[in-house]
Each structure stands twice: as structure tokens, then as C-alpha cells.
Amino acid sequence: MDKQKLQRLLQHLPSYPNLMGKKRFFNAAVLIPMIFSGGEYHFLFQKRAANIRQGGEICFPGGEFEADTDVSCKEAAIRETTEELGIKKEKINILGRLDTFISPRGITVDSFIGELLISDFSGLTPDETEVEKIFSIPVSWFETNSPEEYQLKMQVNPTYLDQEGKRVDLLPIEEFGLPEHYREPWSSANYRVLIYRTPGETVWGITAELVKEVIEKSN
Questions:
Q1: Number of separate domains in the chain
Q2: Residue 11 placed within a domain
Q3: What is the value of pTM for the model shown?
Q4: Please, is 204 exposed, middle or buried when counting C-beta atoms within 10 Å of its C-beta (0-12, 13-18, 19+)?
Q5: 112-147 pLDDT, tens per residue?
């Protein structure tokens, strides 16, 4: 490396720490919608339509960040919300954002807290192909009800058996002269799963992680 390349390296270093290799992950942008009603704020949730991926699960509006069309993760979260809830962009007031969440499954989530400038659901027209129903729960409910926590075990598998029972090496251990014990699966980090048993629906997974983060930061 000569001095010119060193200068080029320094110019390309981030101005502040970020996520190395973020493009390799599935990057999701999510809005955490809140509605002020009856003197307090409520989270607005949606139940995913049964015929789509993760159908029937409770979530916030959001989806994959599309690098070709989305200017930023914030714009992606707003776009997904307008499409899924049928709300105008002008009715979404972005209040702030949370830190990027990284799932052990290889998903990054950039989430934004937004107040929906509506008094009730009458002005919303959810996309029925994606949303089965929408509902709200007072934030205060989550302040007084902690989530249940479960620890799932994860493994790294350097090989697998295909449909014909043939061993497929994902990592050629012998070729690289790596230690023999890497031929067998090894333990990875535990996968924490949070579950809120709300009066109507089960809020769990990444959605529960986002709720818990909001509650912790508001205390």
C-alpha cells in the first residue's frame, strides 16, 4: 500500500461506527406507529394476512429496504406504512428512531417511532392482501406487563445431507486444514425470544423486542 492508497482508505472510513457488511443481511425498515387516544398513547399493531410470509403473526408495518428506490430506511418505513395501512404520508409524524436491531437469523431492523395524526381507525384502509386486521394496545399495558423470555439454541452446520442422503460440505474443512472438530456442528449464540401475552393477541419475536426497547427508553 502506498501513501495514495492509504489516503483513499482514510477517505472511505465511516464518519461514525456503523454495521460492517450490512448489505449482506436482509435489511428491514419498520415503523412503530403510535396513536394518541383517550389521554394516552397506544401502539398500533397489524395482523399479517394468512397467505403471506409469516402469516397470522402480529407486527408493525414495514418491509425490506429497497436500495434501488428507497432514499433511506426512514423513507422505506414510511412507504411500507402508507401501503399497508392505507394512510397518507402527511399523517405520519416521525418522532425518532431506535438503534439498529440485529437478529441472529441475519436480519437487521431499522425502526422509527411515528405518531399517526388520526383520532381513530376510520381513516385507514389496510391492504387486505397483506393485513388481516389492525388493532391498538395502550403503551401503559406494556409498562405494567413484562414479556416472557425464552432462550433457543442455535447451531452452525458445516455440512448437511441432501434429498438423496449425500453429504454436502458447505465449508471444506480438510481442504483448508482446519481443526477436525469443525466437521461437526458447533453451538452458536443463544437466540432470545420475547413473548407478550396481551389480552387479544400474542406479540412476540422482533416486534416484542422493539416494544421492550421503547418501554425501557421511556422509563
A1: 1
A2: no
A3: 0.89
A4: buried
A5: 999 999 988 888 999 899 999 999 999 999 999 999
